[in-house]
Amino acid sequence: MNNLFEIKVCGINDKISMKTAINCKVDYIGLVFYQNSPRNITINACKKLLDLRNKTSKIVALTVNPVDDFLYEIKKIVKPDYFQLHGEENPNRCQDIKKKLNVPLIKSINVKNKVDLIRSTKQFEDICDILLLDAPSETLPGGNGKKFDWEILKGYKSKKKWMLAGGLNIDNINMAIDVTNAPAIDISSGLEIKKGKKDPKLIEDFVTKCKNL
């Protein structure tokens, strides 16, 4: 892609959206393996989507407080390029998962304020490969469509690549990048016509806008 930041489309759970995201050459495609999410996909169901995978768009397997057996099963069948840990996994658990699975990690961190941001990210930046900075969680660990005060991230620097998440959409992406200068962004609910259902046209329009920022 020619844009200045990477794009991750999360919560893909149907073949048309998967094909659209791949055709748009997004950098990461997130598959949600979490039963309580409206975007949940089973390991079995995702096999049809994985038939479409290519080398351009990295596959991210999102899990929430996963047990080892579940991670091993995902690794064996899905063969993700990244695991995304979107629960309450502490640094020790992240280290443990990375050692056992030997797959790069994305760790989701809820951003409440500047002090909390620095404290939280320092715990994980030596362990995880990408930090995902999200709005504080409500009922779900992510995908709530809720943005946070992006001013908190003004001038933020990290040893690791980081992604901006939380309430992004086609109308506010320009402002989000202007304020945060994020090197990567993660979008999910902002591309849906209803909770858990992506709109291929929204995916296309969003990526086109990002390329032209």
What does it look like?
By secondary structure, the chain is an alpha/beta fold. The protein has helices at residues 15-23, 46-50, 68-78, 91-101, 114-124, 173-180, 200-211; strands at 6-10, 28-32, 58-63, 82-85, 105-110, 130-134, 161-164, 184-187, 192-194, 197-198. The strands form 2 sheets. An 8-stranded parallel beta sheet has the order 7-6-5-4-3-2-1-8. It has a two-stranded antiparallel ribbon with strand order 9-10. The chain is globular and about 40 Å long. The chain starts with 5 loop residues before the first strand and ends with a helix.
Secondary-structure-based class equals alpha/beta
Approximate shape: globular
Q: How would a textbook summarize the main sheet?
A: 8 strands, parallel
What fraction, in percent, of the residue positions are helical? 25-40%
- The poorly predicted ranges are none
Major beta sheet, strand line-up = 7-6-5-4-3-2-1-8
- Rg to the nearest angstrom? 16 Å
Tally of helical runs:
7
Distance between the termini: 13 Å
Topology at a glance:
Elements: E1 6-10, H1 15-23, E2 28-32, H2 46-50, E3 58-63, H3 68-78, E4 82-85, H4 91-101, E5 105-110, H5 114-124, E6 130-134, E7 161-164, H6 173-180, E8 184-187, E9 192-194, E10 197-198, H7 200-211
Parallel strand pairs: 1-2, 1-8, 2-3, 3-4, 4-5, 5-6, 6-7
Antiparallel strand pairs: 9-10
Give a short synopsis of this structure.
This protein has 213 residues and is an alpha/beta fold. The protein has 7 helices and 10 strands.
